[in-house]
Amino acid sequence: MNIAEKNVSLSVLEGRAKFIRTETVRLSRIAGAGHYSSTFSCAELLASLYYEQMRIEPAQPDWEDRDRFVMSKGHAAIGLYPVLADLGYFDASELDTYTRLGSNYGDHPDMKKVRGLDFSSGSLGHGLSVGVGLALAGRMTKRDYRSYVLLGDGELSEGQIWEAANSAGHFGLQNLVAIVDRNGLSIDGHTEDVMSVEPLGDRFAAFGWDVQRIDGHDLAAIRAAFDSLKRGDHGKPQVIIADTIKGRGVARMEMSLDWHVGNLVGDDYDDVMAELEAGLKPYEPEAL
Amino acid sequence: MTKDMQDESEIFRGTTTGTTKLRDAKSVRGTPKAGMPAFVLGEELADIADSDPRIVVATADLASANRTNDFRDRHPDRFVNFSIAEKNMITAAAGMASTGLIPYVATFASFAAILGAEAIRTDCAYPKMKVRIVGHHSGMSMGFYGSSHHALEDLGMLRCMADLTVVCATDANHLRGILRASVDHPFAMYIRLGRGRDPVVYNDVPKIEFGRALRVREGTDLTIITCGSQVRASLDAAETLAGEGISVRVIDMFTLDQMDTAEIKAAAMETDAILTVEEHNITGGLGTAVGEVLLDLPRNKFLKHGVPDNYVEVGPPAALYAKYRLDVDGVAAVAREFLKA
């Protein structure tokens, strides 16, 4: 499938991003805990990748020429499972087992259990190396698929990320695309307080990457960034730094340190679902 | 301490390239022993890759030391040098394996297994990626390079990882057999090598079946269960002991996580005592693994011999083997004392 064939409107993608958020809230209730805010920050990115950009064929999850996706920030898998079910990789009713004993769907995703998942994740800092391997394999086997890796910004403190970034630049893996969900927070605080990642664009550029920086909740900007990526497997690896808002979509969670993992119950659950159904409102940071 | 032991410097020879071998050999003390076995890793993998396009080889700035440059020269498009970034190498290999390739990644065992342990477990074993991690210069074979470069814990660390097959290669032909058998093995593997130029035990390539040990000498009084560098030492010690009227069986228990329990039980039933000999910390390695099997059997006379639970002293490899009684005389002496006890 290519982009033209998909011909997805931005309003459809907006709906899918909303679906990712509401499913995250629903599944978290089954588990009694969920990574709400880390998933909300990448909802538009996931929707754009899976419903528009990626060359995938859900009926053939092992298709050798498919684009690959590595969710390096594996704790946001709760937002990916509903997408995979929605696309037909597995029956959506399976999601009701989420995190329950024997389920295929845990907090961090297992490729041996989740149909359509290209690689397992959970231990932060590994995903970009997986992407390097996938990109090298594509080059070796002369397949023109692209490898997308979704990185969190907190995990950029892991040294292995920069081993991978360095090797991707050295090998000129233009078929590797990293997307940084730059939501600004890790568990203990603002990244720039806990461990700075800026100037992030300059850091990747110094390792030999092509860098774009966009508003990661603006679906038109996301589309434009993906559409401008270069094809081919020799050149420069490409990174899209997506500035996002952790917890985007639920006012009480936006840029809050209290909702990295949480559990909505009772009226709170209903209120949040209603807030999400109403659609994104402009982000209004609390006055200092 | 003999002068010969202090002159031991095979580690340097191991890092010379094919084209500069003679020059480098002259530049270090000691000269290569005539007929010293070749480091066959790269050559054998290149042979396999001639007819199997899935084979990929990677290293971490050690293409000369582990002779993966022999592979690189023949299959440059399927060779990757990740430089000194072992975690990235192992995880990237897992990514390659997810597409159907079969990567062999080689570096010093201390960095492959100990530094790379989490990448091995999380990215190779857990998702059942057919990555083959080759840890060479294992044990204390790096000698005076010190504990940072020793791997005396790798077997213990990796043996308890599910869906990871751990094997030790004894010599060049054994390594060839292991590599050939490894290609279609359905799990991730850790292949532990010594210096890669290890003394000959197998004159031909043995038939390899993972989970099946190789009995390399028959005997009735004592069974030595060993692996890797200690197979040759144990065989020579057995020869010495034979001259004293002691009959020693020697088993190459090269397959460490799938123990050959039948072979251990046979040794327990048919010989009077069992001694394990390993170039590894006495905790968690081969001896521990054999002991776990023996727990299920009637009481046996059993002793573990290996490196004490300490960081070993600095010294040339041969001197260290002598000090820790992992050379021929040392193994023979340990066996003698054990049988008398």
Key descriptive features of the protein:
heterodimer, A: 288 residues, alpha/beta, Rossmann fold, 7 strands, 11% strand, B: 341 residues, five-stranded mixed sheet, 15 helices, 18% strand, globular
Give the helix/strand layout.
The complex is a heterodimer of chains A (288) and B (341).
Chain A: H1 3-6, H2 10-31, H3 36-40, H4 43-53, E1 68-71, H5 77-87, H6 127-140, E2 147-152, H7 159-171, E3 176-182, E4 185-186, E5 189-190, H8 191-194, H9 200-206, E6 210-215, H10 219-227, E7 238-243, H11 266-277
Parallel strand pairs in A: 1-2, 2-3, 3-7, 6-7
Antiparallel strand pairs in A: 4-5
Helix pairs in contact in A: 2-4, 2-5, 2-11, 4-5, 4-10, 6-7
Chain B: H1 3-6, H2 10-14, H3 21-27, H4 41-50, E1 55-59, H5 69-74, E2 79-81, H6 86-97, E3 102-108, H7 109-115, H8 117-125, E4 132-136, H9 154-159, E5 164-168, H10 172-182, E6 188-192, E7 214-217, E8 222-226, H11 229-242, E9 248-252, H12 261-270, E10 273-281, H13 286-294, E11 301-307, H14 317-323, H15 328-340
Parallel strand pairs in B: 1-2, 1-3, 3-4, 4-6, 5-6, 8-9, 8-10, 10-11
Antiparallel strand pairs in B: 7-9
